[in-house]
């Protein structure tokens, strides 16, 4: 006879084992929040090590210096993080960062030693930069979303085209004698802190709020986590993807503007090779290359950790010739550390 | 006395030791007991059914029987000898194989390559000898009389053919004990019959099956012995012939049996505008032609048909998942832009898509986020999410649909299948839809959740919504006031609620019983 007496309607369905383990680790705090903070211990350790290596490290000037040098690339990390969360990628951000201010400088800088054409007034520089960024993003979005081309290859092609475009308009030389409006964002100081730091931190704060507390932000995770489910739930997926890609390129243009202002020039190689650091920082910060996972705060801690380590190495007097190799090693080491502290496979 | 001894069937199979025997197997995950002293004996040549609700311990038992996990206590033996160590994958492969619901076939490779993946024949040079591999594949498929060309790319195979290839691969390792994990979940009636035919042939050739299914009828059709698990415990093991259906359902659910025809829904509210009006709809890819149908407010209409009949495509067109080549769709008097899900939802549709894993849920997002994905406007102003309001809505859903979850913040992938489906349903109901469209709403869902979901559907209709259920599952169609049958892309027949099973099935298969 089958047992029909033990009827316990309250017996809970057993959740699958993986999630059960997650719950044990996470306790009452959602695990996502803990993963968010995974790099904070590493940052504290680097700060302590830095202070031991050189007493300069924790001084305000040095910290502001770290934040300022990372502010441009941090904006690229912000842009790439959004794009990775929707399960796309954009390699062309680094050349957008060079081309956008490059086009502005080309049209605005007076003819002569500054290599410009001098067609437009100085006030056009910033709108032009951002417009070029938006245009690049729109082309990328068109190719990726409307024509369904592979984002990796499209943006790789775009990376090469834009890089070549900048070399073409500049003749391989550096634009300088930039108008004051272009110099301002990279050189101004508000309340004793460089404007680029304000801009960078504000945009990150906005991004944290948008991704965490708006329907638009949550739809990014839904799209990256399961595009079909997002579509079936009535999310206008194509529109959201287009907004993300275009915004990413505009942010890259803004990053280029900050960098050009700080260096008072646009070199034809501006932004060259940045994209590798950007991807490394995002992955270290817990962003999944498979989409739908990771937070903006995590990405910020990723890029912050990388730049703090570099700063400590510089303070320790490591010869400049070795910095490149060490940068690569730092990225690998940071990935290993975040794998250990995050305890998850980086996919 | 309430538990039949586990060796119930062995009297008929005296002689050789059972092909697999698990005794006193227990497994815990932290504080959760996944298996509690379960015994399972499968005699050679027998087909044994393993049934139980989601979370009863079936998957854990399968992973122990296939050597993916070690039991905390208890013994597993194959043909009288103790099971190999976990690390000896080859030894396990020679004894047992599991064909999972999710295919492990690589679509881009040919059948032959899939069969001998990583163990190709090599020529003298050490390079892969393709012609020898192909010959071996032909032999293997012929031995088990499987009608598949080894040169076909596996991606071109039908679901059932893919299952055959997986079975053939398992047999080629030497295993004669095969676990089938819900093999019929994605098959239509004809394919299920072919699969069962194959299973019987293979049985005759000395292959033993452990069959996991939610469909009790299938168990009665092809299994000899059934073992029921519930809440990690073995409830009963008995020959199928000696266990009436009501008792089997009772053993699974712990409740009194719940079968039989439902009371028909109350009449259609003729005074109100229809919830759905479809006219001359023709699919862009030829999946269906000139389909017209109406769903009144408060009415439940079934759209039945075999796989490939176009029923799924019609339902998906109604909610804007795909756009039709011609024809019109009117939801509650409004005509949403074709091919736009947001427009269809705004017009008052609620949508439970066909496959919750593929279209229904974002696995890493929480229960609360998944449940509220389609109603951003209700979560807060100006696109911001008021987390308090979201959690209130989610808590309402969890109560309303009796979703079993420790917290609304748990990733939805942590729930059992039935509860995941309830989350999808909760989302479809979140905005008080005027039209509810469901596609295979109870696929892969345990008996009790199924009952619950269908009750909710009726409740929704009583509240005045029109419901369209596209399904080939008779239990889903039993709640309908009317059933329209599609065959090869056209609506061929209509039934009122008092249809007979065999008439409906005949219509779905395109068979004319009167001829």
UniProtKB/TrEMBL annotation, chain A:
Per the record, the major location class is membrane
For this protein, the parts annotated as crossing the membrane are 37-58, 64-86, 98-118, 124-145, 152-176, 196-216, 240-259, 271-289, 296-316, 322-342
Q: Which InterPro entries match?
A: ABC_transp_permease
Residues making up the signal peptide according to the UniProt record:
none
Location within or outside the cell? Cell membrane
Assembly = The complex is composed of two ATP-binding proteins (LsrA), two transmembrane proteins (LsrC and LsrD) and a solute-binding protein (LsrB).
Any Gene Ontology CC annotation: plasma membrane
Instruction: Write one Gene Ontology MF term.
Output: transmembrane transporter activity
Its name, as the record gives it, is Autoinducer 2 import system permease protein LsrC
Q: What does this protein do?
A: Part of the ABC transporter complex LsrABCD involved in autoinducer 2 (AI-2) import. Probably responsible for the translocation of the substrate across the membrane.
What is the originating organism of this protein? Paractinoplanes ferrugineus
Automatic annotation (TrEMBL), chain B:
Which GO molecular function entries does the Swiss-Prot or TrEMBL record give? ATP binding; ATP hydrolysis activity
Where does the source fall among the domains of life?
Bacteria
Q: Which SMART domains match?
A: AAA
> Which residue numbers delimit the ABC transporter domain?
20-256, 265-513
Q: Which InterPro entries match?
A: AAA+_ATPase (IPR003593), ABC_carbohydrate_import_ATPase (IPR050107), ABC_transporter-like_ATP-bd (IPR003439), ABC_transporter-like_CS (IPR017871), P-loop_NTPase (IPR027417)
- Which residue ranges does the record annotate as region Disordered? 1-21
Which keywords does the record carry?
ATP-binding, Nucleotide-binding, Repeat, Transport
Q: Which CDD domains match?
A: ABC_Carb_Monos_I, ABC_Carb_Monos_II
The protein, known as: Multidrug ABC transporter ATP-binding protein
